[in-house]
Amino acid sequence: MHDACEPLAQTVREIARTVAAATADAVDTEARFPQETFAALRAARVLSAGVPVEWGGAGLNLRQQAELCAELGAACGASGMVLAMHFNQLACLVRHAQGSVFAGRFLQEVAANEWLLASMTSEEGTFGDTRSSICAVTIAGERFALDKHATTGSYCAHADAILVTCRRHPDAAANDQALVVVRRSDAQLEQEGDWDTLGMRGTCSPGFVLRSQGAAEQVLPVPFADIAAESMVPYSHVLWAALWWGIARGAVSRAATFVRAAARKQPGVQLPSARRLAEVLVTQEALAAHWRSVADEVDALEAQPEGRQALHGMRWALRFNNLKIGASTQAQAIVHDAVQIVGIAGYKNRSPYSLGRHYRDVLSASMMIANERILGKNADMLAVLKEL
Description:
By secondary structure, the chain is of the alpha+beta class. The chain is built from eleven helices and seven strands. It folds into three domains: 3-113, Orthogonal Bundle (Butyryl-Coa Dehydrogenase, subunit A, domain 1); 117-218, Beta Barrel (Butyryl-CoA Dehydrogenase, subunit A, domain 2), CATH 2.40.110.10; 224-384, Up-down Bundle (Butyryl-CoA Dehydrogenase, subunit A, domain 3). 53% of the residues lie in helices and 11% in strands. The longest helix is centred in the middle third of the chain and has 42 residues, at 224-265. 47% of the residues are buried.
């Protein structure tokens, strides 16, 4: 990790080791928000890591933020996912604050108060298509009003503000969307259903009916189509990939501890589990190289005059889609192999080598924007691309 962010990275490692790891099983069992971990992250000023220095943050780039998510995810998958989604929302504001006095002022508030930002992009009736909305924002004078029926609201009840997608006005097409910053004080949330899931239980993301109003300036002027292409898609896929790799690394670390303990009982004997551990490390390193290389290339585009415009192209869309599909399937395979290495001790709950939580958390990877949906989009793009 770059020297400029190493102190913050070391702080996150310590929080991961002493707080996130210590509470991860309780967060999972009780399906509760990891409040201890996020209290520690707030105190250490980690939540503002992606805010530019001139607005009070640490100014970390995508690669650096992804490394933090991986560190946290190795200890607690749900905590790492919440941090990844927060950083993603933060990037949507940081990278599109131009033309919005409000966005710059709000980011300074985020940094000063270490606010947690949540996301509400899903909606009843859109069948998982985040680039389509039914609800619309209405503006009267200097005020907006927005109601939304979301199928999932990522940790919204625990956030300080929510970034909500909607149609730009009541007569707009379904894909003519805006992104609205809804302060928690501006919103009424009515929870629908519970969040009793197989994994990622601590992300606390049930459905919600949102009713909100606020200052009209909170409706960002940049079309959501641009925000999605230039920020939300690149950041989400890289940050998620880093997180899933972190969960897999945590599982392999437990498997390695198990193998070392077994080896001490049979000195001089090469155990079959040791060979399997060596094999899984190859896949783990390949996945790390994949998401880090994509992160570095996205960061490098920032130095180019029209760098962000390149992210609108089909080749970059394919690149991000392939990262998502590859990372989600490889991370699952790595954790599966770790379970096979450890055996029954990994299969048991309340075992020092238990991998049940890692296994259940990483299974969510292929369903967060379903891989089948993404493969369908890839197929459509490949049909019109003249060369890869």
